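Workshop exercise sheet. Pairs work together: one partner reads the sequence aloud, the other fills in the structure field after running the prediction. Swap roles for the next sheet.
Pair: D.N. / O.F.
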Amino acid sequence: MTTGPSQHQPANQSSGAVTDDAASASRKALRAPDALGSLGDDPFRKQIPAGRAPAAAQPQASFRFRGRSFLAFALTAELPIADWLSELDRWLRNSRGFFAGRPVVLDVSGAKLSKYDFAGLIAELESRGIRLMGIEGADPSWVGPGLPPLLEGGRTVGAVDPADSRASKNARTAKAPKPEPTSLLLDNPVRSGQTVFFPHGDVTVIGSVASGAEIVAAGSIHIYGALRGRALAGAAGNARARIFCSKIEAELLAIDGLYKTADDIEPELRGRPIQAWLDGNTIRVVALG
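Structure field:
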């Protein structure tokens, strides 16, 4: 004769068919004292349903790590730090919210700082709303818990799968990825508050770029209209990048990290077509035509 689930089993579990004697023996075995004491009716201990064997071990899925690269803005600290912070404040006044939501790396490799000066610099950047994702060039002993990690280099990292012993074979047979486009063409004007970010090459805008708008490109920027917002060319470290526009009324021009604000652009150039390029450590802006 067979029985259904025991009344001591959880309601949401079903049991295999067992004899009354076997079920009784199983319940007695569960209530026997062990090395930790008597189980009793302890609600925190799981009771094994009568007649159920332990489940077979499930095969463990492979655990995969993937590397990704992101374009970050690097702030390169220079001595004296007080003057460098003053220049940074000037930038922020002309480009409010520029660093909001952007990945930023602090590079202190060119500034000989003490541990005390380094901690003070981090605090100064935090007070300006600049959140760092990494630090370059600092003494490793300075970068403790609560600070961004110490970074080196910026190489592209591919997928790493430690559980896949056939990775090299699969790599040979995998299809080559499609090449990334090297230019971006925008047929419409860029409105105030919009940001266009293209990390692979040139950006061309057929129309105007409004005040409060922003174009960031790894290559050159071409604007067939008025530039009233911000244009940042060569953002990936291309010192040969240029900026062209049909009418210059820009809030800010930047090439490879060097910049000119509206106050730095010669008044006689405003409203005229221009090109801008990097000459050493200076951005030159000249009229076209």
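Discussion prompt: The longest helix spans residues 81-94. What would you look at next?
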